[in-house]
Amino acid sequence: MIKVNNIVKIYNPKSSNAFEALHGVSTQINDGEMVAIMGKSGAGKSTLLHILACIDNYQDGEYYINDTLVKNLSEREYARIRNEKIGMVMQDFALVEDFTALENVLIPLNFSKQKVKNKKEKALAALKSVGIEELAKKPCSKLSGGQKQRVAIARAIVNEPAMILADEPTGALDTKTSAEIMELFTSLNDKGHTVIIVTHDPLVAEQCHRIIELSDGNIVS
Ligand SMILES: Nc1ncnc2c1ncn2[C@@H]1O[C@H](COP(=O)(O)OP(=O)(O)OP(=O)(O)O)[C@@H](O)[C@H]1O
Ligand SMILES: [Mg+2]
User: Fold this and answer.
1) Whose C-alpha lies nearest to ligand 1, atom 26?
2) pLDDT digits (tens, 9 = 90+) for 111-169
3) CA–CA dist 112, 25 (Å, integer)
4) Which residue's CA is the nearest one to ligand 1's atom 29?
5) Which of 61, 108, 118, 209 stands the most exposed, by the fewest C-beta atoms within 10 Å?
6) 19 lines ligand 1 (CB under 6 A)
7) Residue ranges of domains in the chain
8) CATH number of 2-219
9) Which residues have CB atoms below 5 A from the ion given as ligand 2?
10) Contact at 8 Å (CB) between 125 and 167?
11) Is the C-beta atom of 217 inside 6 A of ligand 1?
């Protein structure tokens, strides 16, 4: 279970262009839930997701993963939590364009502290589960938007994280590919992963159990 209590996020704190993007957000997401985060552009969706994914900090409030307070940790501790518990699909994919699909999916395995047996097999299995095993050796710069999206998802799930967070995973996709990607998230959720998806698309949101709506840095419903 994850829980946020009165989270305040200020970009550029202490500077003249300080900007408060989250004004005290509280919510709870249970293990095994599939939740959509919606709201207008600039509402703070990515900001909240980045905090939940332990890739950004916050100024006030508390964030708990199970009973662990995730606040003011060292970069090393954040990295460990990300690697063990979290799979993140970024809004812009954040793939290494010069790397092949397989090399991108190997990245989290290579960072992992544990000894990962058969890294390559694991990475190939992740690519297979998103339906693009045959593209393993292709550089990401030569893939289509939908294919890149799948590589980003394969990379997010390769460590079998408890939580999968995705920022607009279908934003750049046609209706058919978007439906296929949603099937993928639903099947991951059926296997027990908690799934949190930021989306503008009502068709995506209606496949989730619950919608958290953000407006101007506040949860409104
Ligand atoms: N690095 C940053 N520095 C300063 N302000 C930022 C930064 N990142 C985001 N913001 C501001 O915080 C607010 C929330 O941004 P955020 O990216 O969370 O919005 P969003 O809901 O994800 O929007 P979109 O739907 O366009 O992706 C916006 O007003 C944005 O301009
Ligand atoms: Mg965003």
Assistant:
1) 41
2) 876 666 789 999 999 999 888 999 999 999 999 988 999 999 999 999 889 999 999 98
3) 31
4) 42
5) 118
6) yes
7) 2-219
8) 3.40.50.300
9) 46
10) no
11) no
